[in-house]
Amino acid sequence: MRHTARTALTALAFTCALAAAAPGAAAMPAGNAPSCVAVWHNTGTITKTGYARNDCGHRLRLKIVWAHGSDGACHTVDPGQTISSKIPRGPRTFDGANSC
After folding, report:
1. For 31, which of 15, 42, 53, 97 could close a Cys bridge (C-beta 3.0–4.6 Å)?
2. What is the distance, to the nearest Å, from the Cα of residue 22 to the centroid of all Cα atoms in its chain?
3. pLDDT at 4 over 90
4. Which helix (H) or strand (E) holds 16?
5. Distance separating alpha carbons of residues 23 and 41, to the nearest angstrom
6. 0.85 cut: is pTM over it?
7. Taking the CB of residue 51, how many other CB atoms lie within 10 A of it?
C-alpha cells in the first residue's frame, strides 16, 4: 500500500474512532433562532418537551420546531423567559427554535 493511501486510511480510522467515543454527543438543533437563544429538550416516557430561553438583550418572537409534523406556537419572549412545546413521544425529533 502506498504511503499516502495508508496515511489517509489512518486519518479516517482516527476520525471514526473519535465519533464512536462520544456516544452522548447529539447533533446541534437546526433552528434559525439567534445564537443567544438557548435550546434543549427532554424525553419522557410518554412525551417530548422542547425548550427555548431568550438570553438575548431584547424581546424576540420564537417557536419550538419539531421534525415531521407541526411546530409549537409562536410566542413573544422577553429576555430571560423560556417557552416550551410538548408533543407525544414518537418518531418526531427536536429541531430547535425558529424566529417567527
Report:
1. 97
2. 16
3. no
4. helix 3-21
5. 17
6. no
7. 16
Cell reading at 30: 437546526
Q: Which cell numbers in the block locate residue 70?
A: 407541526
17 vs 48: which has the higher pLDDT: 48
H helix intervals, 22-71: none
Q: In this structure, is the dihedral angle defined by the CA atoms of residues 7, 8, 10 and 14, taken in order, positive or negative?
A: positive
Q: What is the pLDDT of the chain when averaged over all its residues?
A: 80
Structural domains present in the chain: 29-99 (2.60.40.20)
Opening angle at CA 31, ends 29 and 34, nearest 5: 110
Instruction: Please give the grid coordinates belonging to residue 79.
Output: 429576555
Place of cell 504511503: 3
Residues 99/32, Cβ–Cβ less than 8 Å:
yes
Q: Which amino acid is at 17?
A: A
